[in-house]
Design a protein that fits this description.
It contains eight helices and no strands. α3 packs antiparallel against α6. The N and C termini lie far apart (56 Å).
């Protein structure tokens, strides 16, 4: 029988990509992203004993990660954003690998201009989550998800065509 710690570490290992993706969307500065990942892990650990439905672990991780990131952005208004993601040659880190792709950089720069809620919704949409799952994670109606995705896609299209 696994201990709570071992079970948590296994889940974290299986879903760690979510933490990095969400941090990458919310924070342009590498150290801010790394700090945010650590805060997400801490919040996940704190709420892990209350996880009741083992079938919705991914949704739980998304919800905690998004809420932690939004809270941090609101709490630390002093975070300084850069206009572009710096080029990095070291591929030892997931953040670095994600910033190597030029198309992804352009998309991320456009996504940075969305508000926190729409960033989360677009991230979940790009992760091919269903409208129902996005609604559950974000705590909004399915129809509101559709409206927000449509508006965000239009905004991104306009931003990328400039």
């Amino acid at each position: 029988m696994k201990s709570t710690k071992d079970e948590f570490l296994e889940i974290l290992s299986n879903y760690q990509g979510i933490l990095y993706k969400i941090s990458f969307v919310y924070f342009k500065n590498r150290s801010d992203r790394e700090d945010n990942v650590q805060e997400i892990i801490y919040q996940l650990w704190k709420s892990f004993p209350n996880l009741k439905n083992q079938n919705s672990i991914g949704s739980w991780i998304y919800a905690v990660s998004i809420n932690t990131s939004i809270s941090r952005v609101k709490k630390e208004k002093r975070i300084e954003y850069r206009e572009t993601i710096p080029e990095v040659t070291d591929k030892s880190n997931l953040f670095d690998e994600m910033s190597q792709n030029e198309s992804l950089q352009l998309l991320l720069n456009a996504i940075y201009n969305l508000d926190e809620v729409n960033k989360s919704i677009i991230l979940l949409y790009l992760e091919e989550r269903s409208y129902d799952e996005i609604a559950e994670i974000m705590g909004i109606s399915k129809s509101n998800v559709g409206v927000r995705i449509s508006r965000a896609k239009e905004f991104l299209k306009q931003t990328l065509n400039k």
